[in-house]
Each structure stands twice: as structure tokens, then as C-alpha cells.
Design goal:
about 50% strand; mainly beta; 2 domains; OB fold (Dihydrolipoamide Acetyltransferase, E2P); five-stranded antiparallel beta sheet; four-stranded antiparallel beta sheet; elongated; SH3 type barrels
């Protein structure tokens, strides 16, 4: 092989290495996070069974998907590792709402973030539209996990100055 030949490797997919981290099932508690059926969930119930004749205690998790609110369940041996999503919340100031339902948000570095849709939750959607229509300064909390982002809350910081 000569030195002039170059090799290009293309990655065929994301291994998801930075989206989750492993944690032993027996250490995951209520109000923590867990991945069930490839969805990031908030744990609402954990029950652990006694060790059976095959020697593993099992953890029964009930979680609510943090983006769509669906209830998911999983049973895992307590000594095994589960995937736990990296969940973060970031606050952005609302600048504009477009005709097609996207929001324009001001980031800390002065750039704008224009790739988020308005939330599907009618209550939150109404609060955002009403507050924006009244000319209030609104700060939207955006939850992100496993490559997904969604507006999950808002704060009213008063009328625009």
C-alpha cells in the first residue's frame, strides 16, 4: 500500500454513547430517569422482588416518557445495568413565534435557536401564546434527552421593557 492512498471511514450510525450512561438497576430510585423501550422516562414507581430460585432479585420500573407522557414498564434483574438518559433543562428567552408553529429563542451566546416547535400540551401552549400576545417577556424551559428537545415550562419575567 502506498502513502498516497487515503482511507475514509464513514460512520453508519450513532452508537448513542453520549446520550445515556449505565447504572445498576438496583440503585435507580423513584423520580430518577431510565430508558425504557428506547424512550427517556421519569421513574414514578419502583418495586423489587425477592431473589427467586434462579438467584436474581428483579426491579419492576414504571416510567412516564418525558416527551409524550406515555406510561412504560420494564423488569430488569437488580444486578444488571440499565441505560439512564442524560437529561438537561435549559432556559431561553422567547423572541418570536412563527406562522408554522416554530419558536425563535435567544441563547446565552446571543445566537437564536429556531428548530423547536410549540408544545403540544394545550395548557402550556395557551400560556405561551397569550403571554406572547400580551407582549410579556417569557423564558421557556427546554428539556433535552437522547437527541430530542421539547419546551416543558415557561416563566413570565414581566412586561417587555
Amino acid at each position: 500500500m502506498s502513502d498516497s492512498e487515503e482511507h475514509h471511514f464513514e460512520s453508519k450510525g450513532d452508537a448513542g454513547a453520549s446520550k445515556t450512561y449505565p447504572q445498576q438497576a438496583g440503585t435507580i430510585r423513584k423520580n430518577g430517569y431510565i430508558v425504557i423501550k428506547n424512550r427517556p422516562c421519569k421513574v414514578v414507581e419502583v418495586s423489587t422482588s425477592k431473589t427467586g430460585k434462579h438467584g436474581h432479585a428483579k426491579c419492576h420500573f414504571v416510567g412516564i416518557d418525558i416527551f409524550n407522557g406515555k406510561k412504560l414498564e420494564d423488569i430488569v434483574p437488580s444486578s444488571h445495568n440499565c441505560d439512564v438518559p442524560h437529561v438537561s433543562r435549559t432556559d431561553y428567552q422567547l423572541i418570536d413565534i412563527s406562522e408554522d408553529g416554530f419558536v425563535s429563542l435567544l441563547m446565552d451566546n446571543g445566537d437564536t435557536k429556531d428548530d423547536l416547535r410549540l408544545p403540544t400540551d394545550d395548557n402550556l401552549l395557551g400560556q405561551i401564546k397569550d403571554g406572547f400576545g400580551e407582549g410579556k417577556d417569557l423564558v421557556l424551559s427546554v428539556m433535552s434527552a437522547m437527541g430530542e428537545e421539547q419546551i416543558c415550562a415557561l416563566k413570565d419575567i414581566g412586561p417587555k421593557s
